[in-house]
Amino acid sequence: MKVSGGMSKKSTNFMSAVPEAKDEEMGKELESEFDESEMDKGTGVESSTEEIAAKENKAVLWSKALVVLVIVVVAAAIGTVTLKFIQAQEEKAYQDHFDKVSRELVTFSQTRAREIFDNLEAFSAHVTSVAAIEHMVWPFVVIPDFQVHGVVANTMTGASMLTINPIVKHKDREAWENFTAENQGWMAEAHMYDDEVSPGLYTDERYEIRRSGNVNRTTERISAPSHNRTSTNRTSTNRTRTFSRDTGRSDDLWNVTGIKPFIWEVNYTGMRAARLSGGNWSRSDFELPAKKAKEYYPVWQRAPLEDFNPNMNENFAAKAIFKKVISAMIEANRPVLTEAIEGRFLDGDYDRRFDPHTQTEPHSYLLQPIYDSLKNDRQAVGVLSAFFRWGLFFKNVLPEGEDGVMVFLNGTCGQSFTYELQGKKPVYLGQGDLIEHDDRDMRVQFEVAPFATIESSGNKTYCQYQVEIYPSAQFKAKHFTNDPYLYAGAVVSCFVLTTLVFVIYDCMVRLRNKRVMETATKSHAIVSQLFPSNVRDRLMNEVAQQEEDKQKKSSKNAFLVDSSRSADITSPYSPSEAIFGSKPIADLFPESTIMFADMVGFTAWSSVREPSQVFSLLETVYHSFDAAARRMRVFKVETIGDCYVAVCGVPTYRKTHATVMARFACFCATKMVDLCRDLEMSLGPGTDALRMRVGLHSGPVTAGVLRGDKGRFQLFGDTMNSAARMESTGVKDKVQVSQATADLLFASGKGKWLTEREGGVEAKGKGKMKTFFCDIREESVGTGSMTMSTTSFDDTAMVSSSFHNVRSSSGSTSQKQNLSSPSLSSPSTQRLIQWNVDILSKLLRRVMARAQSKSSKSTISRTLQKNIRGSANSGTLLDEVKEVLNLPKFDPKVYTNHVDPESIQLSDEVKAQMISYVTDIAGMYSESNSFHCFDHASHVMMSVIKLMSRINSPIEVSMNDGTSNHKIAENLHDHTFGITSDPLTQFSVVLAAMIHDVDHPGVPNSTLVSENDPISIKYSGKSVAEQNSVELAWERLMLPQYEALRACIYTNDEELDRFRQTLLQLVLATDVIDKDLGAKRKDRWAKAFSPEGASESAETKEDATNRKATIVLEHLLQASDVSHTMQHWQVYVKWNERLFQEMYSGYKASRLAKNPAEAWYEGELGFFDYYIIPLAKKLETCGVFGVSSHEYLSYASMNREEWKNKGRDIVKQYLANIKAEEAGRLEGSEESSVDTDVDTFTDEVATNDAAPGHKIFDV
After folding, report:
1. pLDDT at position 205, please?
2. 134-151 b/e with 16+ CB inside 10 Å = b?
3. Where are the transmembrane segments (predicted)?
């Protein structure tokens, strides 16, 4: 039987555990017994399995029923919780909204009250000042033009009327009454003012008044009684007014005799009795002389003047609402509020100028003391009273459409009033509490004017008002909806749907489990039939253990496996366990290849860029590397600055780690070239020159997670250090590999990739090392579409095509010869042109956006042109230089109507003309100049943009100090002297940088003058190259083919003049040698920024600001023109050598008298000391360039010290480079004369330390 035979072999271990039989028969019996027992067990397996399955199915069914029950309970519970939660959220939103509204109402009301009090106090001080200036003696005071000032004060405070009540002692009563009878002219003035401001105000049928042309003149004399006049000789004030009225009598004047010639008061008791009794009576019957008192408070001047029943000379203190508070006001020496009354209960008719709908509203008087002087020991001499309605405090609080807030005004004197706020308008509902107090617990209570409330004390009780705010039913209804029930129903529905899905899924699972169970039952039955249970279990355990051991032996990666079994016996306890609770997660990987890749020239490149540009480059390059690493299964370790570190073979073992890493390294080096070429158009000139320097080394490495703060996967060991040495000793744009990596590549059959480096390298800490260069750029990297081609596209063809299309669309043919120029047709120059175009286009969009912000309809004259020489065609451009450039003022309209520049789209015609113009300018630069070339102009332009960006974002102006955006914009405008607010100025500065060296001859102005060059004669030997550059560039811009471009730059004559003047001024500012220009600039600087100049200057603030703006712009361009001296050392040396080469070429052409090498070293030191460093300090003094000014000064100082130490050797190297270049051109012909210069210079360096100063930088 095969099963028995198989069993005999498989059960050897098991049988060894049975006592050995003494004879064969014994063995056979045991074997037979074993077989029978096993067979007996096999017959009951199926039945027992079915019993277990049935039992488990029953348990599963109960579990499912329990799950369904739990789902139902949870659904009901969550539905209820959802309902309550959303209801609570609505309640909270309701309360929060009301809290917000109430806080705004409290704040606004109290602020409004304070504004009214402050304005009234200011008006009181005005009255005091006028009386003092006019030498008036209280109470005999008439305030000139009181109606005018009073109406203004009423407008500012919202009061209905304003009244002066002087304090009249009893002894002065008779004199006062005579004074008021004699000085009534101010009433006529008030009427006349009202009639002029509001024609027809006094037209009433009772007076039959109508306007006419009859004019009568009267002169009123305001004077106090003689016995109350001061001893001064100042004459009394004469007030003359002209007014007219026609009532049918030719000489009738305004009726101003309505003032009673005595202080009077109203007998309210008698008037009420007469009103009840009926009959004929008038109010004047009850206007009786005031009772004798110590002091009187007669109504005197009032604004607006009551038109029918003037109440002048009425004793204010006789009124019930004033009796208590006047004395309290005098004692407390501060303003007070009176009790509230309805406006219709005013003495006399409610003035027609008041809103009739507010007559029933509660009103109060605000009383403010008037003092005899503004000194501390002042005395109250009168009362200034303002009559206003309480609704004023609640007006314009809520936004339009926000209704339903109830306001209850509750007084301690038994008065109460109710308002309802309907949007911005408070609606007076009436007296008493008219609010339905459903939410009394939400009441907000406050006092409107706590500073004007007098506390009651003793037998003196004063009315105090509390304002209570409640939400109305309408307000509440807006916040409570049916959403809670809808959401609760939705939640329950989700659970019901989930239950249905669960049931359907369960049916499907039961079918699947049934099949699985059947298979498992059969398998279990078969195994149980073949093996006894103990043998089966032993075999399963052995198989599991063998599989585990097999995996451990075959695995090359134990990184995430617990290493407790292989722990060092001598160190049973690791210190890391005490810190982290477990052993370190680390391992040794015997085979790996590590790559270090560093950007060459990155430090110097980043020194002239904005931080955002630096990170744009790093993110773009590293993102490309990361994508390739994922595809090629290379592990990126980290980036250290501009260094990229990666490894292959860790943490996953890989046999071909050296080959894969070599492919990846070559890809990175090649990809860097493509990316930098593409990025040059957006990141500026010099980006294309960046390259990678890559180093590879292979060997064992320790890798693991270094736990702790910001823990990460790291590599350690000599392999890591060697890879870093391979990179640091490598060569730009090459991949250097060590001997270890090369051996692996040779072993893999990739020896053709390698080229041995001659002489090897001397590595720090390693000594002499044999290295190889790896280059596989002609092969595919084997990662899909990614190839190692060095050119992904033909830049030349692409850019040339774009220029061809531009000319076709613009119709310009004037500059076709430029593209035939070898320099212009080169890909690098065309990318440089495109970068200039992009920068100018962005600024042009800002100019156009501002033009649209100023006016929705802008009429642009496409033919607007002007000669660069201004209105006069005679003289030189130098004569056009102005002392100060006029920048536009801050325009709130432009800020309010701001147009996003990104929304502006340049037309194809304008784009074409922009590219054509920039190409024209590039072609106007001399190809023979190594310094004054289009490349350098672009470098200057880039520096201008960097400094301009610092101006646009000064760190001194905080954006988070709570100031409004409008105020921030105005502060920024003032801080930067208006430069930030005018895109046309910014465009002009950048354009000036691009054109400032157009057609430069490559020699100093002094050489042109000495040679009697035609342009020197044309410009009278002053700023020759600069005037020539700006005139050529301007004339080019004024050509007809650039008409559309000009229409986008300026829209009127004023903008054209400002654009022209700014361009001219800034280009000429680059002439730092001309003494006259230098003296004028120093004078402007002294006036603008030195304390002495600022104190002596009598110019306006606007002129001072424009002067500072002019200085800042000129220094900005000057600093940018020599910015290489204030940037990284490598940048400085690069452009310094170019300038030296240009000057040396002039010397070799016999255009310069002296060899520049003779004084170049000393000249550079002098240039730093007398121009560069002072200029950098001035940038810092301007205060608008942020951190850039400090950066420029720091670089200038460091470069000066570096030049001091290395300058002589560097000049020697300049000469050696020129010699090597000439030797290459001559191809071994006769010896170059540079040899003599090198020898001469070497001798001078050794013997001459007193060479003349710098003579060469006037270029």
Report:
1. 43
2. ebbebbbbbbeebbebbb
3. 65-86, 485-505
